[in-house]
Design brief:
The structure holds 2 protein chains of 2 kinds. Chain A is an all-beta fold. Chain A is about 0% helix and about 50% strand. Chain A starts with a strand and ends with a strand. Chain B is mostly beta strands. Chain B has no helices and 13 strands. In chain B, β5 and β6 form a beta hairpin. The termini of chain B are far apart. Classes of the chains: A mainly beta, B mainly beta.
Chain lengths: ~110, ~120
């Protein structure tokens, strides 16, 4: 199975900060990657698919980039409602595998 | 309103069985791949299985192969997960999710755009 490694595992940032989360695949996965946001006690929410395509209704401060093995989720200006855990998910092959998550907290 | 509603979770002894259900509403269920995703207490997300629109293809994570079976009934707008030979490590919140399966340049992607609220499975003696 493809292993997805996210970094950092957690981060603290202030409102307005630029936040970057990375996800590395154990082998090349083209651009077959999505990003999900999960708030405490809630189901995950789709942010980005195909590495860089923003899901309808998701604020434009979220951007995704990368291909092959290295991917990035960037929040251009952190908002209080962005406090959550973020997961990447590869859909290049089966079984689908998630990263371990990155918890974003307020400084 | 587009919605998924899971049910069927509960407490079961190791080696036991449970059948989870996911009722879909507000969209044409038969048009979508569907998945089960689980989350152990305090842990991350784990994709469990998925099923093609017509039920003709299914895929599983290795840890559940031979024990879990995903199925669907398009006439009833329902997704199922039959779980047998349950183990303590299957304890988790189980979500069903719709895959909008966008296509670009002939490539299909996963995009789990609708999720249920989850149903809790606890395997313990």
């Amino acid at each position: 199975a493809i292993q997805m490694t996210q970094s950092p595992s957690s981060l603290s940032a202030s409102v307005g900060d630029r936040v970057t989360i990375t996800c590395r695949a154990s082998q090349g996965i083209r651009n077959d990657l999505g990003w999900y946001q999960q708030k405490p006690g809630k189901a995950p929410k789709l942010l980005i698919y195909a590495a860089s395509t923003l899901q309808s209704g998701v604020p434009s401060r979220f951007t995704g980039s990368g291909s092959g093995t290295d991917f990035t989720l960037t929040i251009s200006s952190l908002q209080p409602e962005d406090l959550a855990t973020y997961f990447c998910l590869q859909d290049y092959n089966y079984p689908r595998t998630f990263g371990q998550g990155t918890k974003v907290e307020l400084k | 309103e587009v919605q998924l509603l899971e049910s069927g979770g509960g407490l079961v002894q190791p080696g036991g069985s449970l059948r989870l259900s996911c009722a879909a509403s507000g969209f044409t269920f038969s048009n979508y791949w569907m998945s089960w995703v689980r989350q152990a207490p305090g842990k991350g997300l784990e994709w469990v299985a998925n099923i093609r629109q017509d039920g003709s293809k299914t895929y599983y994570v290795d840890s559940v192969k031979g024990r879990f079976t995903i199925s669907r009934d398009n006439a009833k707008n329902s997704l199922y997960l039959q779980m047998n030979s349950l183990r303590a490590e299957d304890t988790a919140l189980y979500y069903c999710a719709r895959d909008q399966t966008p296509q670009y340049s002939g490539v299909f992607y996963d995009a789990f755009d609708i999720w249920g609220q989850g149903t809790v499975v606890t395997v313990s003696s």
